[in-house]
């Protein structure tokens, strides 16, 4: 008997990854998918996706997926629930929001969200309810701020060279991102350059990870010292006359001032800070000096330090000094998030947005929920929350404070989720959420240039609802459903946004599946001038006055020790450096099989990752008398966690690494790695310094 081949559908990956891959999905029935593949026709995805998304059916059809609204019974965090109907659940949310507003005013309600889906309707529609009801705003600081601020400080625009140009480069520098694990498509194009052009791949990172293993030249430096390396590379360029002085005279602001600033920042100076050898630094500088078509792919990882904005600006300045921007396959790229020009005013409810409503820092949720007056901006306590698309009890800094706040008896928390996450376990009400395969939405790639329509591929379970549905139903119960933007379907909202933004309408996008918005060559390479007022690259960063993609509102002002930032590229000594009490530096990069806290619930991902571990260099282990697999306690003033030890000669002495994010209950004491992460604001505009922790280490 002939078997009927599965139907094939096209959609987009919704997850918080720069690739935003175009997907081909096997549809096995009205409510079931099979294998997921990368779309071969998409010139960036190029048929390649990460292993975790290839196994996406495992997540969509997981036996532990939430399928019923649940109300807490008993104490918070106890794990006792009773099923309720959707109507009763939504009535309860509305009732508790109204009560919170009656006691403390509308700002006592804080809708809290982030990037569990990157769909512009399902993710951002929560703002429409926020603004209509005058609930507290959220300052989105946790992920991109340090990197974006540092990049725009130089270019004036959050955009760069087409990432597909890596394939025609003569040297690809992958700086501060484990692309094999977190953005496999970068490697697709970089490896093509190596195969077809003999281009070396240079990787700059803090430990031997899968991307380091792909490197032809690997530079392993101490965490938080990237700015020093960048300065030494530019010092050599000026010293050896490989700096493109004609290019700098035309396109940069103060090359002479930069050269004078860098006079004392030679490879020996940088070696003492970074832990690299002088030879390694000189070798990379020589390679860059003789290779005009050098492409810098600058990641997020090295920016997640307290000096991250300065480090990003310094690394970005390197291809400018060498003049690499002039050539195909040369220049730099971090994100294309500045090219889209989307008008989301109807999706987000801009017409009723009030700038006087306070902003609460997303990264400081622990301080906010435990009543810190500064974190609360002098306003009322938060006493009701709707949480969508994020898992702060696991992913946010200062985890003990976050948990303490969520456990407050006077705080009502509704979590809309696909699984019983660490945050959902502490909620008063949990609502089951749809996956991206089960609704319509639109996506755009930060790491590439395509706008993609992600249509509904299968039906969601009967008892599950979309984010859009929850926002719409709460608007009805809270008396704002008559405001602009409410009462429309996802497709209607997408069509409105496309029309307002000057794009082709949804019908055309759905037919073509994606639209490539890559700027022309001269614009992407800034050959007509950079995005600054005078068209010149800024070596002298204006950290106080600059425009930024996500600058805090005036009510928050500047954040962190801005006065300690150098205007010229430098090593900013703002990191939590090791000291006698805390002799180690801890970084917490992502694990290959997880994406933030997503996929940590799937069997395939957990089996491949094995267990949460703490990596240490053999010399450090021997000095402390520690053995492989030994349980150790790692801690600082914020708390401590227990982990088994993995002795790894791919580490640098004095550096510890834990790859995550594992659920909190995967740890011995039920507390995750972000117990150790600080939430103090970073200069100049905030951001979480996840890889910047000084710690002590002891045997259990």
TrEMBL record:
The UniProt family comment states: Belongs to the prokaryotic molybdopterin-containing oxidoreductase family.
Its name, as the record gives it, is Anaerobic selenocysteine-containing dehydrogenase
Pfam families per the record? Molybdop_Fe4S4, Molybdopterin, Molydop_binding
Per UniProt, the keywords (alphabetical) are: Iron, Iron-sulfur, Metal-binding, Molybdenum, Oxidoreductase
Q: Does the keyword Lipoprotein apply?
A: no
Q: Which GO terms describe its molecular function?
A: iron-sulfur cluster binding; metal ion binding; molybdopterin cofactor binding; oxidoreductase activity
Query: Has keyword Iron-sulfur?
Result: yes
Species of the source = Aureimonas jatrophae
Q: Which domain of life is it from?
A: Bacteria
Per its UniProt record, the required cofactor names are: Mo-bis(molybdopterin guanine dinucleotide)
Checking InterPro entries in the record gives:
Asp_de-COase-like_dom_sf (IPR009010), MoPterin_dinucl-bd_dom (IPR006657), Mopterin_OxRdtase (IPR006656), Mopterin_OxRdtase_4Fe-4S_dom (IPR006963), Mopterin_OxRdtase_prok_CS (IPR006655), Prok_Mopterin_Oxidored (IPR050612), YoaE_C (IPR037920)
Per UniProt, residues of the 4Fe-4S Mo/W bis-MGD-type domain are: 6-64
